[in-house]
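Q: What does the assembled structure look like for these inputs?
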Amino acid sequence: MSKSAMLEVKNNDPIGTLRDFFRDLLEKKIVEALLIPKKLPSGDGYCQTLIRDPEMLVDVNPFAPTLAVQSARIISHLTITEPGSQIGAVLKSCEIRAVVELVKFLQVKLDRLILIGVDCLGTYEPSDYAKMNQQEGEGISITGKLLKGAQQGKIEPQDGYDLRLACQICEYPNPQNADVIIGLFGHNPQKEIYLQLQDGLADELAQEGILASSEGGSTSRDSVIERLTEERLKRRDEVFDAFRSRVKGLQDLMDALSTCMRCHNCMVACPICYCKECVFRTPTFEHKADQILRWADRKGGVRMPTDTLLFHLIRLSHMATSCIGCGLCDSACPNDLPVATLFRAVGQRVQGMFDYSPGRSVDEEPPVATFREDELQAESGKT
Amino acid sequence: MEEFKPRIIAFLCHWCTYTGADLAGTTRQQYPPNIRIIHMMCSGAVDTIYILKALIDGADGVLIGGCHPGDCHYQTGNYKARRRIAILKEILNQVGFSDDRIWLRWISASEGKLFADTVTRMVEELQKMGPNPMKKLWLA
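A:
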């Protein structure tokens, strides 16, 4: 169960108001460290920063409209061994879904973690954001422009720029499974911010005199989320349909992936690909020359480096069931291959086989980690 | 034109299907010689990489043989194999590669005849399908 509260915005400055809230959390030791996006000194972007000293909260922005790194990877690093401190993490919805998946793969421990989810305005490619910053110069708030559309759920990107495709087709603009939700939709962020708090934490905040909360939610927020989700689902299905009609056969897939140079960036960026040592980077795939020559002999010739198709299909077989759709593989690809769309479109179908929705709940077992005795009878030739 | 002779790579579990294949031999069951057997300890040890690598390198079919459900020597290896292979096949279907070149079959140590019949049928089916299109895919 959860409680809710309304945070009154001071000086028409929602980010400043939240900064004060985070300061309270740190000073009253609700969290002993806070992971939050902080503006780079160049202004060209944001980086997740683990803050101990409340003075460091200057220039933090929970709504930072870029996502350079999937924070779930950072959270894994911070919690896989007992951190010794209560850590708060300000995350976007896709990052929390990745955290939920990594909990199930035993890569994240929630014990000393407070998940603070924000209503997401979407993110720009980090390179686009840097360009915008350099063109627009000081004083023009890129986040501010997106915030203007938050109340109605009509988010308008900067002229001449698009949000990342993954964000355009994201059906989860609002976070789930967070201990604290910072709500923007359905409320005027110049005036108020909606907070939803998990019960225990709500009581703790009330005791410390930080915030009083009550039962009930926000119907205006719910209706904006409902409409926004519907629009995103529609857009998502259009993108999936376009991809499926483009990739109908093996040759189409090869064409779609033809400029892949197997740099592994998609894998490195992926929060679900958590293996410390990927098989594609082991001696198993350091083929001997005579072996490669034999393959070349058999096919007449062979693309070098080898195993491009194998890499993508095997990666799919490892992560498609848990792909949470953050699209960081797209951002990481130097050749702009449609990897995120491939992984999400295929993922949708394999997740559907097991009625599994990645990021939905820590209590559901990931399909690749379990089985049922009475399932998939046709698989072994039974009719 | 030369008759198409499908080539099958088979991953057989030590405790059931491999022994079943052995029984097929000792009881003089006849089956086509199109199969190359790789001896595994369990169908659950068959990594999807093995299956795909075989197909991409030109095998016309891949047969994975394991113990019947409930009979796995390691309790649950075959259930895990079944799910893993089901996921792989769905992925292949999604990218336009027909999944009927991959056969998962439960054949016990006493079912030598079933092994011979399975191989015979698989060869027939693959003959109908023709050569694996990945065979000449140099870009893969």
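The two ends of chain B are 27 Å apart (CA to CA).
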